[in-house]
Amino acid sequence: MALHKLLVDDFYDDTYKLIAIHCGLEDYRLAYLLNQSLELNLKRKSKDLDFEYLTSSYSIFEWNNVSQFVTWNLVSNVCKKEEESLYSTGLFQTNEKVLKTFNLVPEYKRVDYFIKISDEIQNVNEKLILDKLQNIPQIVTSYSVNPIQLKSKDHLIF
């Protein structure tokens, strides 16, 4: 009798495009500008992405375009959290507040936001989207990222 081996990785084949955005805007302002320039309808989800048992949370906006079978997500890559830490100098200990920074995708620490485009029919023109993003004056730069090469690509499954 022959043995058959199934690999779990074969079952998950989510094809999506990933665009990195560098800008200093708040998440709601960037979502508004993307809605205007790309003719989207991004809305904030009721729950943020939480990782490592509430250590960090990332804002996420979503729009499901049913007519074109495309789901758009705008997700923050940076979470800044203020934590208390003990600081000791000799005999005395004091509590200080320290600002810690967490990243959704640690390989791209300088990226502020990611746009994830999940399209079933592969009809989204990525070059056209990048051109429109470059025309937004508040965005410093944007570029395409290959999600297959990411070590932390599991963080982008939502």
Structure description:
- With 158 residues, the protein is mainly β.
- It has one domain (14-156).
- It contains two helices and ten strands.
- The strands form three sheets. A six-stranded antiparallel beta sheet has the order 2-5-6-9-1-10, covered by helices on one side. Strands 3-4 form a two-stranded antiparallel sheet.
- A hairpin with a 4-residue loop joins strand 3 (49-51) and strand 4.
- The longest helix has 12 residues, at 27-38.
- The protein starts with 15 loop residues before the first strand and ends in a 13-residue tail after the last strand.
Number of domains: 1
| Structural category | mainly beta
Distance between the termini: 40 Å
What's the story with the biggest beta sheet?
6 strands, antiparallel
What is the count of β-strands?
A: 10
Rounded radius of gyration (Å): 19 Å
Mean pLDDT: 87
Oligomer: single chain
Strands side by side in the biggest sheet: 2-5-6-9-1-10
What is the approximate shape? globular
| Weakly predicted, low-confidence segments | none
In short:
By secondary structure, the chain is mainly β. It is 13% helix and 42% strand. It has helices spanning 27-38, 126-134; strands at 16-23, 43-44, 49-51, 56-58, 60-65, 70-76, 78-89, 92-103, 113-119, 139-145.
